[in-house]
Amino acid sequence: GRHGQLENMARAACIALWPKVVDPQTISELSLSTNALYTVSGILHNYEENKDQLYVLRITDPRSGRSRDDIMAECLWLESLKNDTNLVVRYPIRTNNGDLFGTHQYDNVPHQYVTLFEHVPGERLEDHLDTTTARLWGRLLAELHRHASTFSLPHHLDLIQINAAISGRQEIVLNQPGANKFISSQRAKLFGRFQHLVDAEIKSLWKQYGDPMLIHYDLHGWNVLVSKPSTSQSESNSDNQDNRHYQLAAIDFEDLVLGHRLQDVVRSLYDIRNYDNYQVLRDAFQNGYQEILPWPESNENQIQLLMLGQQLSLANFILHHWDDEEDIEEELVALEEDIEKYFTDEVSAIEDG
């Protein structure tokens, strides 16, 4: 099956690309969703901590829509973050030939991009979210923005620009009546109208802030790891009492795009928008962010519209990639309900029109 095939490919890639770094016999599956992730032990023992050095191997699935340029940008940014900041990230380990990542083919599986990262410890922020960790989360995103604002990528890299509600490399079907069984003419009209509103908001944002910059665009609670550093380390690194107890690491930079800071903030907060304590967590996140950079200027309506843009983009993705019809319908109904909840006046205008 796919599991065994990918694991064999991961083992073969380790032997071919990182023969002096990892022991291919120690491969263990970490997650298998769109991409395949494995942990693998290093050849060298870490005597300081008396344990094996760990790495994370990623096989990028062609269906993920990520290009060679995307992965190159990801690896270059991570390497720069490692060299120029104290931030904790999974940085790439260069191959035996000195490349940031490799391509590998195994049996009948087509060429796929394979990247090896340094492993970082920690548990998902999602499971440890309170005002203290939310503040550090906001601070972490601002640190990434501060670095990205002065970081230059090679000009030839062609990256996705988030210059519309649904951007990227997939066809827009959300506003096409009859494009599939889920999009009635009524739905197409509703979604199309709000897609237009979000597009206009993003256009004005880009006009206001000028050239876009590199943003993580996926720094939600699953892609931030929380750990408690040792006492001596934490005391030397702490600015204040709160920082002493936690170390946050940013992972999974593969969705990076060109956009603006506010778009990255909205993407980070999107998954907690329906939490009962959302406002408290968001305030803590904003306070942490403002310790490093000014909060991206915005009004509530702007953030709400950009949140809706996230939903529209997700719904369009689901229509392309999900198979379960009940799940698809459930997501589209949730989108309609959110539109009616937050944009009552606009919905009335559409219905009257």
Automatic annotation (TrEMBL):
Gene3D superfamilies noted in UniProt: 3.90.1200.10
Pfam families in the cross-refs: APH
Molecular-function GO term, any one: amino acid kinase activity
SUPFAM superfamilies per record: Protein kinase-like (PK-like) (SSF56112)
InterPro entries membership: Aminoglycoside_PTrfase, Kinase-like_dom_sf, Pseudomonas-type_ThrB
Positions of the Aminoglycoside phosphotransferase domain: 54-289
Highest rank taxon of the organism: Eukaryota
Family under the similarity heading: Belongs to the pseudomonas-type ThrB family.
Name of the featured protein: Aminoglycoside phosphotransferase domain-containing protein
